[in-house]
Automatic annotation (TrEMBL):
Keywords in alphabetical order: Cell membrane, Membrane, Transmembrane, Transmembrane helix
Source species taxonomy: Bacteria, Bacillati, Bacillota, Bacilli, Bacillales
Predominant localisation class: membrane
Identification of the protein by name: Chromate efflux transporter
Any one GO molecular-function label of the UniProt entry: chromate transmembrane transporter activity
Transmembrane intervals: 6-25, 70-98, 104-123, 135-168, 188-209, 221-240, 260-278, 290-312, 324-341, 353-386
Topological category with respect to the lipid bilayer: Multi-pass membrane protein
Family: Belongs to the chromate ion transporter (CHR) (TC 2.A.51) family.
Gene designation: chrA
Any one cellular-component term (Gene Ontology): plasma membrane
Pfam families with a match to the protein in the record: Chromate_transp
InterPro entries assigned: Chr_Tranpt_l_chain, Chromate_transpt
Taxonomic source organism: Cohnella pontilimi
Compartment(s) where it occurs, according to its Swiss-Prot or TrEMBL record: Cell membrane
Length: 388
């Protein structure tokens, strides 16, 4: 119970994205409550950066699991995720009934998304594209993603860049000494979770085709997005855009509007999945779809955290694994750069003044370090003034 209430307070107050969330967690769990020491917190943070999925949510799950086992991990996830999931679901229902003034506000949200995604590309490139080899990975991935929209232009470059990183980047990765205080779960639980992770990854696409059920289709979309995306919240954008827009669940405009709104709420950005589920229908059916999509996109994180924690020391010390991950991270920058152009830029920018608003938001975000929620509010106001 204590784990859930602590996470709920963080879910209500943690603005600023995954990096900021880690700072909130450190202050709460290390300094205020002293549930873990600095070394254990740093080790768990490294593990969650290594795994696909939302890093801050995974860190909350791992801290909850260390504190109170599986129940602690679940309560930590619910507490941290619920506030933003409810807000995004509410926005999905409210956006369908707004007037002309509201259209201006929504366009402002789309312009905020341009700035936020551009800032994500910039910051990730500075840390993940540090040499010519990785720059080639990023550029080639972006070109392929724009040439072949959808999964065909996303997964193959990730796999190829991972393999190329394993071959070419081993000498460039640094391995720190393993920290002895690594949480140890029961091996049976870990292997069960890892097995279930791969079984669902293979089974859900088949069930989606065979059953033709909208709920199974949403579960498949969410689960694959949560399983195959490295780099956290912003990087899920290309995969979700392809799976939801190209399949007709929502329009490109609805997608970018929701993504802009997601920047203004606390908690994990992956709760954008609840918006996708809710906006694809209305009423009770929309709520059910939002819940299915939300659970599906976070389920891989829970299974991976429970499955990897006992083996983290060995993975962390393996140079080949780290080199492959470096290649994947460079490819992720390319995917996000492609998504910045299509759909974010192409949907939001209509005329020169839109470029000015997006550029001003980018400067405020990167140079002046305004918080994301303030960028969203200012951009929405600008959209209302221009188009309202």
């Amino acid at each position: 119970m204590e784990t859930g209430w602590t996470a709920l307070r963080l879910g209500l107050t943690s603005f600023g994205g995954p990096i900021a969330h880690i700072g909130y967690f450190r202050n709460e769990y290390v300094h205020r409550r002293r549930w873990v020491d600095e070394e254990t917190f740093a080790d768990l943070t490294s593990m969650c950066q290594f795994l696909p999925g939302p890093a801050s949510s995974q860190l909350g799950m791992s801290l909850g699991m260390k504190r109170a086992g599986v129940a602690g991990a679940l309560s930590a996830w619910v507490g941290f995720t619920l506030p933003s999931a409810l807000l995004m679901t509410f926005f999905a229902f409210a956006a369908a009934s707004i007037g002309k003034a509201g259209e201006g506000l929504l366009h402002g949200l789309m312009l905020a998304a341009v700035a936020v995604v551009a800032q994500a590309v910039w910051s990730m490139a500075r840390t993940s594209v540090t040499d010519v080899t990785r720059a080639v990975f990023a550029v080639c991935t972006a070109a392929i993603a724009l040439w072949l929209p959808g999964t065909a232009g996303q997964l193959p470059p990730l796999v190829l860049c991972g393999a190329a990183g394993w071959l070419l980047l081993r000498k460039q990765v640094n391995i720190t000494a393993p920290i002895p205080d690594v949480p140890r779960n029961r091996p049976v639980l870990a292997m069960t979770c890892l097995s279930l992770f791969f079984i669902l990854l293979a089974l859900l696409p088949v069930l989606s085709v065979v059953s033709l059920s909208p709920l199974v289709n949403l579960a498949d979309i969410g689960y694959r997005a949560g399983s195959l995306v490295f780099g956290g919240g912003h990087v899920v954008l290309p995969m979700l855009e392809h799976e939801s827009v190209r399949s007709g669940l929502l329009t490109e405009r609805q997608f970018v509007e929701g993504y802009g709104a997601a920047q203004a709420v606390p908690g994990p950005l992956f709760t954008f999945a609840a918006y996708i589920g809710a906006v694809s229908s209305q009423g009770l059916q929309g709520c059910i779809r939002a819940a299915v999509m939300l659970i599906a996109i976070f389920l891989p994180s829970f299974l991976l955290v429970a499955g990897v924690m006992p083996f983290w020391e060995g993975l962390r010390a393996n140079k080949g694994t780290r080199a492959a991950l470096a290649g994947v991270n460079a490819a992720v920058v390319g995917l996000l750069a492609a998504a910045l152009y299509d759909p974010v830029w192409t949907s939001a920018v209509r005329q020169p003044i839109d470029i000015a608003v997006a550029a001003a938001a980018f400067v405020c975000l990167v140079l002046w370090r305004w918080p994301s929620w303030l960028i969203v509010a200012a951009s929405a106001l600008a959209g209302w003034m221009i188009y309202g």
